Amino acid sequence: MSKEAILNAIRRGLKRGPLPADQRAMLEARLMARPRHLIPARSRVPRPDQIKLFIANVEKEFGTVTRVADAKDIPGAVAEYLSQQNLAPRFVMAPHPELQALPWSDRAMLEFETRRAEASDLVSVQHGYAGIAETGTLMLPSDPTRPTTLNLLAETEIVVLRASRITGPYEDAWDMLRAERQDAVTGGFMPRNVMLVTGPSRSADIEQTLELGAHGPRRLHVILVDDDPAALPG
Amino acid sequence: MVQITSPQFKENAARALADAGLQKALGKAKGAFLQRRGDAVARLPEFEQLRDIGRDIKNHTLANLDFYLETYAANVEAAGGTVHWCSTAEEARAVVLEICRKAGAKTVTKGKSMISEELGINDHLEAHGIEPVETDLGEYIIQLRREHPSHIIAPAFHLNREDWENSFREMHTDLPKDRVFSERRDILTEARTKLRDRFLAADVGITGANFLIAESGSSVIVTNEGNGDLTQTLPRVHIALASIEKLVPTLNDACALLRLLARSATGQDFSVYTTFSTGARRPGDLDGPEEYHVVLIDNGRSNMFGTEFQEMLRCIRCAACMNHCPVYGATGGHAYGWVYPGPMGSVLTPTLIGVDKAGHLPNASTFCGRCESVCPVKIPLPKMMRHWREREFERHLSPVAMRRNLGLWAWVAQRPALYRMATKLAVGALGLMAQGKGAFRSLPLAGGWTQGRDLPVPEGGTFMDRYAKTKRGD
User: Fold this and answer.
1) Which of A13, A45, B348, B473 could serve as a FRET partner for B142 with CA atoms 20 to 30 Å apart?
2) In sequence order, what are the residues at sequence separation of 6 or more whose Cβ sits closer than 8 angstroms to the Cβ of residue B10?
3) Which residues of A touch B256 (CB under 8 A)?
4) Taking CB atoms and an 8 Å limit, are A198 and B272 in contact across chains?
């Protein structure tokens, strides 16, 4: 058995046998406690500044952001963005109840289907689970209402995110997922896939020079809904 | 499979120094990584503290790796995935082939993975009638050109834009011959279009892993292009290849190391896609693979425990050491003659293929120490290269002339009066011969040595002279 061979070789090198029960218990306690390490000061700022930091970092990484005051303004913001980019008013949307409940009929020219993405889709609208201010990163976990392909196949991805879902560091976003989600298979919190997305796809493989638009989306646009009174600019 | 040419390092290096195209590519690329890393580090005041934390997390994990591997494997299986433990490259190749065969695979897409290069997965699949398709832009062109990566995060580091254009014209024969690549972007767009169909058609997707997380049973990939994500999302089967030292205990531990990785590697604050995969598609999911396999590979690493090379297992493969290495900067990666180039390769390669074959690599160092000073997990690379030199010397693997000269030097060095006189004479003579130049490009009786390097002209007397002056306070 290679498993035993590998474990034994490691133990031999470490000059010990299998760990005694008390040491195992200590390691299990560390896994439960999952100690946090140093969190950089940059994201430990008041709420309105956290939102500003998130936006500034998304833009630094070549993403774009529109802020809307209310969820009912989202269809208008989508329509406006698509027309600004000279894109047809057509998209594939995540089958998420919050997105499906929006007043899309206000913008009758918008055509969309709610499903996973296919290769022919040019624009996708995804439901953002959390935003991480530290680096302008979106947390996009997979589940039946948030297919992963929406983050990958379309040339343009629009992510709808509530400002109340913006955290400072990555650790806070993971804690949110830990508290809110229970997986049908494992009983734990991890879904099959969690993407942390920071800006649109890019490559520097040609002469170490950055070019946007590799295999994933060429554009990443965030529509940020100001649902958090504490987060509004003073 | 990567042919081992490490024993011919000297010839490889001489050829690399004379290769105008390579020197042009190296000249262009070198500064970019350094500048970007420096800027990223400057933007994060806590960076130095994080390096200590990164080192400690890895040390803790390695000291308890048996426990964390078992915990990790149990959590992968609880999430519906399968873990395949493999002691050797041969075993890992057989496992990958078997999974592909069971899936009835004709084509396999691949995300960038150095362990895949180490194992020789592509040749093995090809030999058995399965077509591997590299999808990282740099790996893609390397595969078209039938070459190997020359850098662990930028596989096409050795190529110029003209090389890309020529290879694309030659290989993409269905496109008009006279098409114009007016910008780098046009090259990128052509690759994107070409690879899209391959992504959709693949039966199996193979990726590497930057980290494995014991707490959740997750494998993590870090990419900028999105090719790794397409590779692991679209096909029916996902295989993640990972060596045993990729383990970290928790997501919080991974967060600390992720703060170091992109900054050290490409000088980004965070890579575009950092993706955590845990098991297969869940009930109700609309996409994702139906099978999730982790091939967990030892291939010589467990032998490093308890040796002076154990600390090398902390490596997170950021490539900062080679980006800052004057030797790598002069020869590029292919001269090193196997999968891992630069300082991390000079330490790792002898452990994996033997110091008898890779003994030149730890000698290809100026001991300037920049690699250690930028390593995000503080691996003492120069110290470990010295350990290899000692082992090589002890095992009588170094050339006779070198052993004889070292012996002569030791004899003189143990006689202080003689040593001082000899160095004084040498400094004086070299100073006269220099005639105002700053460095010698060649020296009589030392042609072998100066062929690959310049000797700076001594300035200001011997060390003992200068030491005496300082003591007198002038």
Assistant:
1) B348
2) B360, B452
3) 37-38
4) yes
